[in-house]
Design a protein that fits this description.
- The structure holds two protein chains of two kinds.
- By secondary structure, chain A is of the alpha/beta class.
- Chain A contains 13 helices and 18 strands.
- In chain A, strands 1, 2, 9, 10, 11, 12 and 18 form a seven-stranded mixed sheet that branches. In chain A, strands 7-6-14-15-16-13-17 form a seven-stranded mixed sheet, with helices on both faces.
- The longest helix of chain A has 19 residues.
- Chain A is globular.
- By secondary structure, chain B is mostly helical.
- Helix content of chain B is 53%, strand content 0%.
- Chain B is globular.
- The chains are: A alpha/beta, B mainly alpha.
- Chains A and B meet through α2 and α13 of A and α3 of B.
Chain lengths: 461, 87
């Protein structure tokens, strides 16, 4: 079987790239090792309930009728209507550090006013930083790593404000510890503070199902349970792939969303070492608690709370199995839907130690998940009313779960610290999209697939 | 195709790229970019849609001709004179 393009991975980026290619008449096949689509943003059913895997919120919100920003860009590129994603905006979120709570919603003026009120001496510096963010070109594919902390320190002198601003952005997208690349920072700052959060009533499955439906209606082929064991290499060219079951598929080019290091591993031993292709090591444990009431009923009305117990913020691979000093509390109920979700739920996420979770024997693993679920909830109660009496059902996932279902080394969620912005690899017709290319979040990952498909597969120079 | 048919073809392409847009108010002499916030990715899509529909190749140096409806129709008229309309 021979294709114009083979895409590895049926996540957001692979499906979006697939739609572009199929729309413009390419013979394209998406290969997914797992039994279902979605990758890092998938969904599942457990004990009669639907859950999302990664989704807390979709960032990059734009109201209907909007024309600018990444959401409108991908809607146009994928020929979707605004209604197809059915986005309801957030109710309001906050960053909570000792002595300060900065609230934000999908109106940036509100956030700016919060900073002016709580950090009056820093507001001019903050505005200068925002001007720098507004002027930054994320489309420049040739840029290299710049320290965000250094750039922020040029404008803001209070380290507490720097940490508070960074906290949500790092939690929702930094592949590197302590600091982040300024380009990544700009992408995250715009997507979270300037555009904001939203969620489809049905969760991420609505978007994924619309992507697959469109891909297939355009003639694209999707193979599930079709893991790529090896990329077939001839000199600087890839000629096709060998699947786990030994089947060989040929293609003129291959686009991989498997991750940069993960993709090179599939090429075999002949690939030269390149430190741009070093996998990330930041991962998380997430707890999902299904409740017998809506969170508003016990007094929790916020969409997402980012918390940290000290003025210093340690965004790094946890030394403990889970770092309970900081975390994210997300309530999927607290978006402005036109009707309430069927059940209440609270998701709490915290930094974790991948090695610890990978190496536990099975019986210990189950026990430790329970233990750390309790620890995470205990720690979060400083920021949310005690909802433990309302818990009906629980699920916990760890770096081990993420590795198992996505193949990402270390169960890494935000990919490699070094992004490959132009999607190129050591091979002429092998390209990268997804988390390791550089755009992040649900909308960002679709934009990643679209951009790389446009750049290399539809309009090659 | 006559210029008026070419205009319909372009409208059809714009409606596919931006299905939420009200195109009945489009001013043929004002740049698309200003009226619809089209960016370079969208212009590339107009070019690719034309290539897909009519196999017409528009070199990159000519993208500037696609700035308004008027200029686009003028530019495409000789290129599409023998093509059959698809709309």
């Amino acid at each position: 079987m021979s294709y114009d393009s083979i895409i590895i991975g049926a996540g957001m980026s692979g499906l979006a790239a697939g739609i572009r290619l199929a729309y413009f008449g390419k013979r394209v096949c998406i290969l997914e090792r797992h039994t279902t689509i979605g990758g890092l943003n998938s969904f599942y059913r457990l004990r009669g309930r639907n859950h999302d895997v990664g989704l807390h919120a979709i960032t990059n919100y734009s109201p209907p009728g909007g024309k600018k920003g990444p959401l409108n860009k991908i809607l146009r590129q994928l020929r979707f209507q605004w209604e197809d994603f059915d986005l309801s905006p957030q109710c309001g979120s906050s960053v909570v550090f000792p002595g300060h709570t900065l609230r934000f919603n999908n109106h940036f003026d509100y956030f700016e006013a919060q900073i002016a009120e709580q950090f009056p001496r820093e507001i001019n510096g903050f505005r200068q930083l925002v001007s720098e963010i507004d002027a930054h070109n994320i489309g420049d594919l040739g840029q290299t790593w710049i320290s965000t902390r250094a750039r922020m320190a040029d404008h803001i002198s209070d380290p507490l404000l720097i940490n508070m601003l960074l906290c949500p952005l790092m939690f929702y997208g930094s592949p590197s510890a302590h600091d982040m690349d300024f380009n990544q920072f700009v992408i995250m700052f715009r997507s979270i503070y300037q555009e904001g959060f939203a969620r489809p009533y049905q969760g991420v499955r609505l978007i994924l199902k619309n992507l697959v439906r469109k891909f297939k209606s355009l003639g694209g082929e999707l193979k599930l349970r079709a893991g790529v064991k090896q990329l077939l290499i001839e000199g600087k060219q890839v000629s096709g792939v060998m699947l786990d079951d030994g089947q060989i598929l040929e293609a003129k080019n291959v686009l991989s969303s498997a991750g940069s290091a993960e993709t090179l591993q599939m090429c075999g031993a002949e690939v030269p070492q390149d430190d741009r292709f070093t996998p990330g090591d930041i991962s998380f444990v997430e707890t999902i608690s299904v409740l017998d009431q809506q969170p508003q009923e016990f007094g929790h009305e916020e969409t997402i709370v980012f918390y940290n117990e000290s003025e210093d913020f340690y965004y790094e691979q946890s030394k403990e199995p889970v770092d309970v000093r900081s975390g994210i509390i997300c309530s999927p109920n607290n978006f402005e839907y036109d009707r309430p979700l069927e059940e209440g739920s609270i998701r709490i996420t915290a930094l974790a130690n991948p090695d610890y979770w990978m190496n536990l024997p099975e019986e210990k693993y189950i026990e430790q998940k329970q233990y750390w679920y309790d620890q995470i909830l205990e720690s979060s109660l400083r920021y949310i009313p005690d909802f433990r009496p309302h818990v009906l059902d629980v699920d916990v996932f760890t770096p081990r779960t993420i590795k198992k279902f996505t193949g990402h080394i270390n169960g890494c969620v935000y990919g490699a610290p070094q992004k490959i912005l132009d999607g190129s690899t050591p091979f002429n017709n092998l390209f990268l999209c997804g988390t390791d290319q550089g755009f992040l979040g649900i909308i960002g990952s679709m934009l990643s697939g679209i951009s790389i498909a446009n750049l290399h597969l539809l309009n090659p120079k | 195709m006559a210029p008026e048919q070419i205009r319909s073809v372009i409208l059809d392409i714009l409606a596919r790229i931006a299905p939420d847009e009200d195109l009945s108010e489009l001013d043929d002499s004002v740049p698309f970019r200003e009226q619809m916030e089209l960016d370079s990715m969208d212009f590339l899509d107009i070019v690719m849609e034309l290539r897909k529909l009519y196999r017409v190749q528009i070199p990159e140096e000519d993208y500037g001709e696609l700035v308004t409806m008027d200029s686009t129709v003028t530019y495409l008229t000789p290129l599409l004179k023998d093509a059959e309309s698809t709309v």
